Amino acid sequence: DAGITQSPRYKITETGRQVTLMCHQTWSHSYMFWYRQDLGHGLRLIYYSAAADITDKGEVPDGYVVSRSKTENFPLTLESATRSQTSVYFCASSEVRTGGYEQYFGPGTRLTVT
Amino acid sequence: AQSVAQPEDQVNVAEGNPLTVKCTYSVSGNPYLFWYVQYPNRGLQFLLKYITGDNLVKGSYGFEAEFNKSQTSFHLKKPSALVSDSALYFCAVRDQASGTYKYIFGTGTRLKVLA
Q1: For B108, which DSSP code?
Q2: Does the pLDDT at position B113 exceed 60?
Q3: What total number of domains does chain B contain?
Q4: How far apart are CA B1 and CA A71, in angstroms?
Q5: CA-to-CA dists, residue A67 to A31, A75, B79, B87, angstroms
Q6: Cα A17 to chain centroid, rounded
Q7: Residue B86, SS3 per DSSP
Q8: Which residues on adjacent β-strands are paired with residue B65?
Q9: How many Å lie between the alpha carbon of A57 and the closest alpha carbon of chain B?
Q10: Per-residue exposure over A44-67, b if at least 16 CB sit within 10 Å of its own CB, e if not
Q11: Which CATH number do you get for residue B15?
Q12: pLDDT digits (tens, 9 = 90+) for A65-74
């Protein structure tokens, strides 16, 4: 049972480069989320998706793009990376149709923008 | 505005003593409340939730939480702390006003259990 995976686990990139973080879940959960975790801010929602081809902005969407063409994948793209996007990024999924509601998180991607 | 607050950045407790990690919320309607735990260099793990029903909710690893509607609180508790409980704990609430199943997280409370 693979659950939810993220790749890469660690990434160093330069300012201005495009970076894509991958997220894959094997449960066919309807909802998927991207968060960033920074000291003093807890988890902040970047984007979320209620189903394939349905995405919406969260609290801090600027500079990020998402897509969800398949239920199991939810990639996050930084179009032109900035130092302020240095963070740990978590992907999560949840299933609301069966009344679960709790989220299951991936292991995270530590991104450093130099 | 929908919000959740964890008023303590850190809680220290001696091993074997009871522990409480506090969470208060502000949402419209009936809240969906959650606790998660994060160990170093790991993703968050679900501990327990309150959606409806009994105010005392039991979860993983011996943790429980009490939903108190009048005080708008959902404090996490454990009768006897273990050193292995040391971690970062997050409270979360569903963003009811959005009409979706997205959530608002608190800033986290670091629990240190001292041997």
Answers
A1: -
A2: yes
A3: 1
A4: 31
A5: 13, 6, 44, 33
A6: 18
A7: coil
A8: B57, B76
A9: 11
A10: bbbbbbbebeebeebbbbeebebb
A11: 2.60.40.10
A12: 999 999 999 9
Count contacts between A and B (CB, < 8 Å): 57
Partners of residue B101 in chain A, C-beta under 8 Å: 31, 50, 94, 96, 101
DSSP conformation class of B71? T
CATH class of domain segment(s) A4-113: mainly beta
What's residue B98's pLDDT?
A: 82
> Residue A62 has which token pair?
């600027």
Task: Provide the pLDDT confidence category of residue A1 given band limits of 50, 70 and 90.
Answer: low
Tokens matching residue A91: 């992907």
Structure tokens that stand for A54 in this block? 């349905």
Nearest Cα neighbor of B95 from B30, B27, B49, B25 is B27
Task: Evaluate the CA torsion angle A50, A56, A59, A61 in order and state its sign.
Answer: positive
Write out pLDDT tens, residues B16-33.
999 999 999 998 888 999
